[in-house]
Structure formats: C-alpha cells, structure tokens
C-alpha cells in the first residue's frame, strides 16, 4: 500500500513537495514512479526512477521543473515540484514503475495550481 501526502493549493509559479511512503511493502529493488490524473483525463506517468536511484525519467511536460528522488531506508519516494502551472493540477499517486495487471493505488494527494 502506498500513501501519498504533501499536496495543496498554490499559485502559478509556486512549489510543492509530495511524498509517498509504502507500508507492507519494501520499495528497495523496484523501479518506482509518480503518476497523476488530471480532471477528466486518464492517469499518466510523470516521472520514474530506477531501482538503484539511476535511470531517472521525467516526462517532457515536467522536465526541468519536477525532480523525483527515493530513500529506500525510509521506504519513500518524493517528487519536488517547482514553477508549477495550472495544467499541473491533478491528483498525484506513486506506484511501481512497471504496474501489475491489477495495480493497487493509494489515496493520492491533490495538487491545485491557480493562475
């Protein structure tokens, strides 16, 4: 189970840091990712990180603004978001980079960016 936290409401250009902690599951050895679901749209992956902290990928829509990191000792994955835009408004989730056929999703954390 993943539990996300740290979302909120900010103005355009602002920053937020969202965190994800896994319980009953260890992230060590697994590539992880952050996903988001914008209102009325499908969930999409925005950033991923390899099992050893390498192979970091950021979608073009967030590249240069979002930074994903992991701490296996804390069993957590964070997403630092800078220069937020209204189009970043979404529910944010973390999960495995390579999803199972029936992935289990946490409650998510809501990010609202106003113009």
Number of helices: 0
Instruction: State Rg.
Output: 13 Å
The number of strands is: 10
Note the gap between the termini. 34 Å
Query: In this structure, how is the largest beta sheet organized?
Result: 6 strands, mixed
How would you describe what is shown here?
By secondary structure, this protein is mainly beta. Helix content is 0%, strand content 48%. The model has no long low-confidence stretch (mean pLDDT 96). It is globular, with a radius of gyration of 13 Å. The protein contains no helices and 10 strands. Strand 5 and strand 6 form a beta hairpin. The strands form 2 sheets. It has a 6-stranded mixed beta sheet, with no helix packed on it.
Write the layout of secondary structure elements.
Layout: E1 2-5, E2 8-11, E3 16-22, E4 32-37, E5 43-49, E6 57-58, E7 66-71, E8 76-81, E9 90-96, E10 109-114
Parallel strand pairs: 2-10
Antiparallel strand pairs: 1-3, 3-8, 4-5, 4-9, 5-6, 7-8, 9-10
Which descriptors apply to this entry?
0% helix, four-stranded antiparallel β-sheet, mainly beta, 115 residues, six-stranded mixed β-sheet, globular
What's this entry about, in short?
This protein is mostly beta strands. The protein contains no helices and ten strands.
């Amino acid at each position: 189970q993943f539990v996300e936290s740290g979302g909120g409401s900010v103005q355009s250009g602002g920053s937020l840091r969202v965190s994800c902690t896994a319980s009953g599951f260890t992230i060590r050895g697994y590539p992880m990712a952050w996903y988001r679901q914008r209102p009325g749209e499908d969930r999409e992956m925005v950033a991923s990180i390899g099992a050893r902290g390498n192979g970091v990928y950021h979608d073009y829509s967030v590249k240069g603004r979002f930074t994903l990191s992991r701490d296996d000792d804390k069993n957590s994955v964070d997403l630092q978001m800078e220069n937020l835009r209204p189009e970043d408004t979404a529910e944010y989730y973390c999960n495995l980079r390579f999803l199972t056929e029936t992935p289990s999703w946490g409650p998510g954390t809501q990010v609202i960016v106003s113009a």
